[in-house]
Amino acid sequence: MRYPRLNTSIPRETYAFLVARLLNAMGSAFIWPLTTIYVHNVLLGNYAEAGWVLFGQSLAGGIGQFAGGAAYQRLGPTRLIVGSLALTAMAQWSLMLAHTFPVYALCIACNSFLISATQPALNAFVGNRWKAHSARLFNTMYVMTNIGIAVGTALAGVIASISFTLTFFLNGVLTWSFAIFMWRFFRRIKPDPDDAAVNALPQMGASGWQLLRNYRVYALLGGGMLALSLALAAWNSGVAPYLNQTGHQPDAYSVLWTVNGTLILVGQPVTNWIKRRVTKTPTAQLVLSSALYAVAFAGMALLHRAYPALVAGMVVATFGEMLNAPTVPELVTRMTGPHAAFYLGLVGAIGNVGSLLGPVLFGHLFDLAGISPILWVATGACALATVAYAGYARTVKPVMAPELNARHPRRRWSRNGEEQSFPK
């Protein structure tokens, strides 16, 4: 069975956007790795207070995603994205004046809310502006973001050792620069005549309540993301304290994330082959991604006493991440068209619940019974995500084929969502 080659090119006008995205991700990574250290060492708070700051940061981020998605149609991409980025820069600069715990907690929550509000808007803009290239673009954005985070976290400690004030200032400068770039970018771009609008699912109206009633777009997808984000908390709240408890060097945990970042860069040919030859549809990519996560956590639950098993688990989990992270925005924008920002914000907010619950649940489990039950709970959560994603694939299957055929005229999907071959 032969398949046509995929068109992997991306529009030239996106090059500067992708570089700006990388720099913005690098700037954002200046803050979040240092929150606990700043609260404890500078504000002289305890680790419990630092935990509450992180909780508030995560909660504000979830609310920001939903609010940004809901406001997209009313404000439009230019005002929402540029305005949120400009306000984010001001919130980051305000951290230079946050010399007490309550003020810092409020400023960091505002920063998280504002930067999160831009994410569904940016993803919806990319998915609807360059429809024919959305899959490639979302994957490239994912890779560029991870490069920025890797560079940013590496520089964060160096800059913070000089001055935390300098860290906050540079973070604000990069965000403000991204806001100016996006403002000029929106003024410069022109409509793309090759991108005709496609509505895969009939929308029930423009009001938020009517969009919420269209639950098949987001319910199972958001449930799968919630379960996965809960499971992923096992790294910070299970694996990290376990390595510390068993006498490993501090860099043992950072090595795992070095493996993660390296694989995201060098493993793209493998995931591209999987997408082309194995999964073939976005929904199948989600099912396989959660299954890989489940295999990773199950393997670590059985063999976690050996450090190489944790490294192997990170390798498998990273391939699951690469199949999941860029696929969700691609799929949502495909399915929902002009309402993509609303549903992206809603799905992101639902998934964020797992990030809120995971550290609390796993922190108590670790104190009670160590790492083993944490890894088994994470495995079960990934299995639930697999079931949810499989249910989602079945729910949207009848409308995926005509939508995919409209977006990719050189490829054909049947009504059951499987790609068909062309005659030789």
From TrEMBL:
Coiled-coil ranges per UniProt: none
Q: Where is the Major facilitator superfamily (MFS) profile domain?
A: 13-397
Stretches that traverse the bilayer: 21-40, 103-125, 137-162, 168-186, 217-235, 255-274, 286-303, 309-328, 340-362, 374-392
Q: Which UniProt keywords apply?
A: Cell membrane, Membrane, Transmembrane, Transmembrane helix, Transport
**A GO term, aspect molecular function:** transmembrane transporter activity
What's its membrane topology?
A: Multi-pass membrane protein
Q: Where in the cell is it found?
A: Cell membrane
Which InterPro entries does UniProt cross-reference here?
Answer: MFS, MFS_dom, MFS_trans_sf, MFS_Transporters, Tet-R_TetA/multi-R_MdtG-like
Instruction: Provide the protein name.
Output: Predicted arabinose efflux permease, MFS family
Organism expressing this protein natively: Alicyclobacillus vulcanalis
